[in-house]
UniProtKB/TrEMBL annotation:
Domain of life: Bacteria
Range of residues in the leader sequence: none
Keyword Isomerase: yes
Family matches, as SUPFAM superfamilies: Xylose isomerase-like
InterPro entries: L-rhamnose_isomerase, Xyl_isomerase-like_sf
Source species: Sphingobium cyanobacteriorum
Lineage: Bacteria, Pseudomonadati, Pseudomonadota, Alphaproteobacteria, Sphingomonadales
Name of the protein in question: TIM barrel protein
Family matches, as Gene3D superfamilies: Divalent-metal-dependent TIM barrel enzymes
Length: 429
């Protein structure tokens, strides 16, 4: 196994922090035991929790105006994989990478799969890209892709998605995430109904090409790049499209793709109720953005989302198999550090949701005891679960303080010596 961070550095660091971790873990174990919670059972749950990282999140993204590369940034999928393996080596939370095509295109996908496996990585949902033109394409996506009036652009977009399925099969993936930027900037620019008809017709051709065990994850987004209307703008449109397409079509919830203050946790409950919850793109948002680090703005919302997921897991109604992925762009931080921090925050919310006393919660709900129902959530949210995550991570071969070891390893400085500089330029991802 090819591990970019030195095993000696990790061992030394963990040994130096073993005593304080044991002290904090034992203190939390005693606290949880008072409520009848076995800390080791919770820790074992964490050991089974993973979230995928996006290949495109390994590089520095752009703001709406420019990007500011850092030395040692990855320049291709091979270097991105290496960075993703650092995140997983330290956190033990991110063993899969979600690729984006054509950005991550190579000539030999079996070799790429082997390369990832040697770094301890597998593959998550494959993402298609029909929201920008590529050199050599016969048709432009300037006026849309799956919903475009131009039949040639639609066919090209369908063909690209089918190619993504084929690539994903070779990589060992089993989900295709479809997000289209199709929409309008002016009232009257397109007919709402006819553009949705075109989308459904094209999407059904992609759906027909899905292998039996694959899912098609439909990602909605309220706006951007279209600023007046978007074809798959919200969870309702996504749900209706998924329902129309068939059982293998599910809805993907990107936390940053809603109007400000929308009750996303309720959307999660709704989608699960009707068997259409396919997965998540985790990030955070303050205004209209969708790229801030998970939990950096509203960690309570993330906790409430995981609370609904814990309810859903306990009441699977047939299937509970949401795919967890990070979808962020890092403009002012080292992307590895942002994804280490984000993966940790996501896992924290998962653990806190696992600590909710559901018997008390449901009992309070039945009795209309509003304050006690709220307190059942609040008690869990207020617990500092860091020692559980740290113990699970160290036991799995990760490190106690991820950022400290990452900085100590000087990984980015080493890469700055080896890798070609990344060019300037705009870079929305
Ligand atoms: Mn997304």
């Amino acid at each position: 196994m090819n591990r970019p961070i030195s095993a000696e550095l990790i061992e030394e660091h963990n040994a130096a922090h073993a005593d304080i971790l044991a002290e904090d873990y034992d203190a939390l174990a005693r606290k949880l035991a008072r409520s009848g919670v076995d800390i080791d059972a919770i820790k074992d749950r964490v050991a089974g929790f993973t979230v995928a990282v996006p290949s495109w999140g390994a590089g520095r993204g752009g703001t709406r105006f420019a990007k500011f590369p850092i030395p040692g940034e990855p320049t291709n999928i091979h270097e991105k994989l290496e960075d993703c393996s650092v995140i997983n080596q330290l956190s033990r939370l991110t063993p899969r990478v979600s690729p984006h095509f054509p950005w991550d295109k190579v000539s030999d996908y079996q070799a790429l799969r082997d390369e990832a496996a040697a770094l301890g990585l597998g593959w998550d949902a494959v993402n298609s890209n029909t929201f920008q033109d590529q050199v050599g394409l016969a048709h432009s996506y300037a006026n849309g892709s799956l919903a475009a009036q131009d039949a040639g652009a639609r066919a090209q977009a369908v063909e690209h998605n089918i190619e993504c399925i084929e690539i994903g099969r070779q990589l060992g993936s089993s989900d295709l995430t479809v997000w289209v930027g199709d929409g309008t900037n002016f009232p009257g620019q397109q007919d709402f109904t006819r553009s949705l008809d075109r989308y459904l017709e094209a999407a059904s051709q992609i759906y027909a090409a899905l292998p039996d065990d694959w899912r098609m994850l439909l990602e909605h987004k309220m706006f951007e790049p279209a600023f007046y209307s978007t074809v798959i703008s919200d969870w309702g449109s996504s749900f209706l499209a998924a329902q129309e397409l068939g059982p293998k079509a599910k809805c993907l919830v990107d936390l940053g793709h809603h109007a400000p203050n929308v009750n996303i946790e309720q959307i999660v409950a709704r989608l699960h109720r009707f068997g259409k919850l396919g997965g998540f793109h985790f990030n955070d948002s303050k205004y209209g953005d969708d790229d801030l680090d998970s939990g950096s703005i509203n960690p309570h919302q993330l906790f409430l989302v995981f609370n609904e997921l814990a309810e859903a897991e306990a009441n699977p109604r047939g299937e509970f198999r949401p795919s967890y992925m990070i979808d962020q762009s890092h403009n002012v931080t080292d992307p590895i550090e942002s994804m280490l921090s984000s993966a940790e925050t996501i896992a924290q919310c998962f653990v806190k949701a696992s600590l909710v006393d559901r018997v008390s919660l449901h009992d309070a709900q039945e009795r209309n005891d509003t304050m006690m129902a709220f307190q059942a959530l609040r008690r869990a949210y207020n617990i500092d679960v860091a020692p559980i995550l740290a113990r699970a991570r160290v036991e799995a071969g990760g490190v106690y303080d991820m950022l400290a070891v990452y900085r100590q390893s000087r990984y980015r400085d080493r890469k700055a010596q080896e890798r070609k500089p990344v060019g300037l330029g705009a870079g929305i991802v």
